[in-house]
Amino acid sequence: MKKIINTVNAPEAIGPYSQANLANGVLYISGQIPVDPVTGKLVEGIEKETHQVMKNLEAILTEAGMTFKNVVKATIFLKSMDDFAVMNDIYASYLDADSYPARETVQVSCLPKNVDIEISMIAHQD
After folding, report:
1. What are the backbone angles phi and psi of residue 98, rounded to the nearest 5°?
2. What's this model's pTM, rounded to 2 decimal places?
3. Rounded to an integer, what distance in angstroms lies between the CA atom of residue 79 and that of residue 66?
4. What's the pLDDT tens digit per position in 52-66?
């Protein structure tokens, strides 16, 4: 059985999708971009963008009763691999080194709203 997870503490979906779906103890979080859910505006600069994306992901995890420790897989899309080191340091600061998820990072030519980063995650209930 699928349960749709939605929170006002993360940006509303900008298309025909849910913020996340919980199915059989697995949480599938849609790609998050750096939209501030309070203002509805994009934040700019890879540092601020990465922090905002991680805060958006954290809000969805919290709504589902989980934390970053529950994340088993992350997919990161960057507009430029030149931003990798900065993004990676900020990303790691939100995680516990004892429970890093599996991950891939890919460079893409364009992202929604022309942002520099988008991250999706899969988490599992303990």
Report:
1. -80, -5
2. 0.96
3. 29
4. 999 999 999 999 999
